[in-house]
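Per your request, structure below.
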């Protein structure tokens, strides 16, 4: 079997009492006449003042923009971020090569620490299903030759990519911490390779409906996430109680605040719900870096009175997993309100 796509249609269809049929092109096009969500331009921040050590006034203006976007949007874009276009392009090529491997090989050969996942095994009804496949790789495994099998050329690129994303994530986290009166290096000791991840995503073209999730609505269970995506689009986020579509920018990386930063900042920074919508004709690729602390790290508010009770990252992860298994969705921070 040489088909690269996982059996998403069969598993999605199993969530219905009747088989799912692929609609004719005409029928689909008529549904496309429904109101189209307007694309939004996320706050765009030029990091050259931070990366190239410009004067203090420019650095302060850049830091202020990062903190404002984290409070008002929970999402922003960065350009001149210090990660070379050549490295990003090489990483994309290796990612394409990896995902074009036959599905049976991806599912059975233990690639990348046996981290291959597809669909949503816990889904009990259609709105819980994600039309996607991914490798979710701990940073501790990226250097291990045994993880790569025939994809040896991916290893060196992954190491360089992970190091660059890690450096950028810590720079941004330091800016956000400093804004709240803490030292820039506050996350250096608690965010280590053992709990940080890189996730390689592929969203195959979905012939069924324009309303199927590539990735179900969620918030991220980390401090912050950095996303490198292609130009297909499909990422949407919640803004003013409405879903807005994010316009891709080929020169930018997307940054979003995670649950832990919202709790640690006492709601100064916002972890915003977001999702990916599947595309009928075009597959979509992205790569996400997740800045996470060690499992025994205690997450407490940096300000009083605290909105949330203290909890460890391990406790938070366990609660999220329990909720998803029991209810089919993540409850998140509301579980930890004082």
């Amino acid at each position: 079997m040489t088909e690269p796509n996982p059996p998403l249609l069969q598993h999605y269809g199993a969530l219905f009492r009747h088989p799912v049929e692929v609609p004719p092109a005409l029928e689909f096009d008529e549904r496309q006449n429904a109101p189209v969500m307007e694309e939004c331009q996320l706050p765009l921040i030029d990091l050259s003042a931070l990366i190239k050590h410009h004067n203090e006034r420019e650095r302060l203006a850049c830091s202020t923009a990062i903190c404002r976007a984290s409070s008002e949007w929970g999402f922003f874009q960065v350009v001149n971020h210090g990660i070379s276009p050549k490295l990003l392009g090489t990483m994309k090529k290796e990612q394409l090569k990896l995902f074009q491997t036959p599905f049976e090989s991806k599912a059975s050969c233990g690639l990348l620490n046996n981290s291959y996942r597809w669909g949503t095994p816990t889904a009990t009804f259609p709105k819980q299903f994600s039309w996607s496949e991914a490798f979710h790789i701990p940073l501790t495994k990226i250097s291990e030759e045994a993880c790569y099998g025939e994809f040896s050329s991916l290893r060196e690129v992954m190491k360089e990519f992970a190091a660059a994303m890690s450096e950028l994530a810590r720079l941004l986290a330091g800016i956000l911490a400093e804004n709240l009166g803490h030292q820039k290096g506050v996350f250096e000791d608690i965010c280590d390779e053992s709990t940080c991840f890189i996730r390689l995503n592929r969203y195959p073209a979905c012939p069924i409906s324009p309303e199927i999730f590539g990735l179900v609505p969620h918030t991220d269970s980390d401090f912050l996430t950095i996303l490198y995506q292609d130009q297909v689009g499909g990422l949407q986020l919640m803004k003013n109680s409405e879903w807005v579509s994010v316009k891709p920018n080929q020169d930018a990386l997307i940054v979003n605040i995670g649950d832990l930063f919202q709790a640690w900042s006492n709601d100064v920074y916002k972890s915003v719900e977001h999702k990916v919508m599947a595309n009928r004709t075009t597959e979509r690729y992205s790569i996400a870096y997740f800045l996470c602390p060690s499992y025994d790290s205690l997450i407490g508010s940096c300000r009083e009175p605290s909105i949330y009770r203290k909890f460890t990252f391990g406790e938070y992860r366990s609660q999220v997993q329990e909720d998803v298994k029991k209810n089919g969705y993540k409850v998140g921070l509301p579980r930890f309100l004082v």
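The radius of gyration is 20 Å.

Regards,
D.
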